[in-house]
Amino acid sequence: MRDLGPCLLGVLAVALRQRDNGQMHPFQHALTCVRSLCDFTMMAQYGSHTAETIQYKEDYAERFHGTKDIFLEFRVSKRTQAKADELRLELRHRRTLVNQ
What is the total count of domains within the chain? Predict the structure, then answer.
Protein backbone atom coordinates (compact mmCIF):
# COMPACT_ATOMS: atom_id res chain seq x y z
CA MET A 1 0.00 0.00 0.00
CA ARG A 2 2.92 2.30 0.70
CA ASP A 3 3.97 2.20 -2.96
CA LEU A 4 0.53 1.78 -4.49
CA GLY A 5 -1.21 4.61 -2.64
CA PRO A 6 0.57 7.58 -4.22
CA CYS A 7 0.27 5.95 -7.67
CA LEU A 8 -3.43 5.38 -7.18
CA LEU A 9 -3.93 8.95 -6.04
CA GLY A 10 -2.08 10.28 -9.10
CA VAL A 11 -4.03 8.09 -11.51
CA LEU A 12 -7.31 9.09 -9.91
CA ALA A 13 -6.42 12.79 -10.03
CA VAL A 14 -5.57 12.58 -13.75
CA ALA A 15 -8.67 10.52 -14.54
CA LEU A 16 -10.90 13.00 -12.77
CA ARG A 17 -9.61 16.04 -14.65
CA GLN A 18 -12.04 15.36 -17.50
CA ARG A 19 -15.20 16.35 -15.66
CA ASP A 20 -18.04 18.78 -16.06
CA ASN A 21 -19.37 21.15 -13.40
CA GLY A 22 -21.96 18.63 -12.19
CA GLN A 23 -19.24 16.14 -11.40
CA MET A 24 -16.97 18.51 -9.47
CA HIS A 25 -18.27 17.73 -5.97
CA PRO A 26 -18.31 13.90 -6.26
CA PHE A 27 -14.82 13.88 -7.79
CA GLN A 28 -13.42 16.14 -5.07
CA HIS A 29 -15.11 13.87 -2.51
CA ALA A 30 -13.45 10.79 -4.09
CA LEU A 31 -10.04 12.47 -4.18
CA THR A 32 -10.34 13.50 -0.54
CA CYS A 33 -11.22 9.94 0.42
CA VAL A 34 -8.28 8.35 -1.43
CA ARG A 35 -5.86 11.06 -0.29
CA SER A 36 -6.88 10.53 3.33
CA LEU A 37 -6.35 6.79 3.05
CA CYS A 38 -2.92 7.32 1.47
CA ASP A 39 -1.92 9.87 4.10
CA PHE A 40 -3.04 7.58 6.92
CA THR A 41 -1.07 4.69 5.42
CA MET A 42 2.04 6.82 5.07
CA MET A 43 1.80 7.99 8.67
CA ALA A 44 1.29 4.40 9.84
CA GLN A 45 4.70 3.52 8.37
CA TYR A 46 6.50 5.71 10.90
CA GLY A 47 8.70 3.75 13.31
CA SER A 48 7.50 5.76 16.29
CA HIS A 49 4.80 8.33 16.91
CA THR A 50 4.37 11.51 18.86
CA ALA A 51 1.11 13.01 20.04
CA GLU A 52 1.18 15.16 16.89
CA THR A 53 1.59 12.25 14.44
CA ILE A 54 -1.12 10.27 16.25
CA GLN A 55 -3.43 13.25 15.88
CA TYR A 56 -2.62 13.38 12.15
CA LYS A 57 -3.51 9.69 11.83
CA GLU A 58 -6.78 10.22 13.68
CA ASP A 59 -7.64 13.17 11.44
CA TYR A 60 -6.85 11.21 8.27
CA ALA A 61 -8.89 8.21 9.47
CA GLU A 62 -11.83 10.46 10.37
CA ARG A 63 -11.68 12.19 6.98
CA PHE A 64 -11.51 8.81 5.20
CA HIS A 65 -14.52 7.43 7.08
CA GLY A 66 -16.41 10.66 6.43
CA THR A 67 -15.89 10.47 2.66
CA LYS A 68 -15.82 6.74 1.82
CA ASP A 69 -19.56 6.71 1.11
CA ILE A 70 -18.83 8.18 -2.33
CA PHE A 71 -17.83 4.69 -3.46
CA LEU A 72 -20.95 2.91 -2.16
CA GLU A 73 -22.78 3.20 -5.48
CA PHE A 74 -20.06 1.04 -7.05
CA ARG A 75 -20.36 -1.69 -4.43
CA VAL A 76 -21.55 -5.00 -5.79
CA SER A 77 -24.68 -6.22 -4.06
CA LYS A 78 -25.85 -9.83 -4.01
CA ARG A 79 -28.62 -8.93 -6.45
CA THR A 80 -26.18 -7.28 -8.85
CA GLN A 81 -23.80 -10.23 -8.65
CA ALA A 82 -26.64 -12.69 -9.30
CA LYS A 83 -27.77 -10.69 -12.33
CA ALA A 84 -24.20 -10.57 -13.68
CA ASP A 85 -23.88 -14.34 -13.22
CA GLU A 86 -27.20 -14.88 -15.00
CA LEU A 87 -26.12 -12.71 -17.94
CA ARG A 88 -22.76 -14.46 -18.13
CA LEU A 89 -24.47 -17.86 -18.36
CA GLU A 90 -26.83 -16.57 -21.03
CA LEU A 91 -23.92 -15.26 -23.11
CA ARG A 92 -22.08 -18.57 -22.80
CA HIS A 93 -25.20 -20.41 -23.90
CA ARG A 94 -25.62 -18.13 -26.95
CA ARG A 95 -21.95 -18.54 -27.84
CA THR A 96 -22.34 -22.32 -27.66
CA LEU A 97 -25.36 -22.18 -29.99
CA VAL A 98 -23.51 -20.00 -32.50
CA ASN A 99 -20.44 -22.27 -32.51
CA GLN A 100 -22.48 -25.43 -33.24
Answer: 1
